[in-house]
Amino acid sequence: MEWTDERLEPLTSVELKNLLNNVGTRRAAGRVSTEDADDLCRRIEARMSAVRKARFHSTRPPRPMTFEKRVAIELGGIAEALAKRYDLSPATARNLSVGAKNFKAHNLTAKNGEAKTGGAMKEGKLAIDRYISYRVGESLVSLAFILFKDEPEENARYYVIGTDDVMTEGQRFAELLADKTGYGWSPAFTARMNVACFEESGLATVAYEALIAKLAPALDAKQKI
Known about the structure:
Blueprint: H1 5-8, H2 13-28, H3 34-59, H4 67-83, H5 90-95, E1 116-117, H6 119-122, E2 126-136, E3 139-148, E4 157-163, E5 171-172, H7 173-176, H8 187-191, E6 193-198, H9 201-215
Antiparallel strand pairs: 1-2, 2-3, 3-4, 4-6, 5-6
């Protein structure tokens, strides 16, 4: 029998091992040339390796989702829900920002639909900094989940953050950070921001939507999908 790759593919690891031993026996008896035997042995061993890898991947338990990943997905879901009620497209934000100097529209989420990753987290200044944000003109509102560096996970909180022209209540962001160091935000940024802190996402979402409603046009019933 000619052992093509197609004939080798359905064989189990035990069958492949038996075939490999048989090829060795036939080569020793001179019933198959050394060249043909070496080629078949090479292909059998390659197939055995592929079978082992497939078995490993099928039996390996899924990698547990990290705390940060769960939050990123959750915030992405909040952004998706808001986008069904408000026009949060970059094009509309640009139209509403005519005259604003150096305006750059914010995508609400990262490209994968999850929360964006803050620069402070990328630089290792914060343990977790995942957020969604929307900007019109000089006004900015953000819903973030932040865990400061070297703090336990239970200290992580949801933060609704907005420029003081939109978010007129709450604590000054600079005051919140008074006892923090190395967090990564510039004084110019924190000076004009107010913030409200929440332990649960539900109340944070309500507060954030109230800010979104001040900046973005609501979609009418026909546009909501």
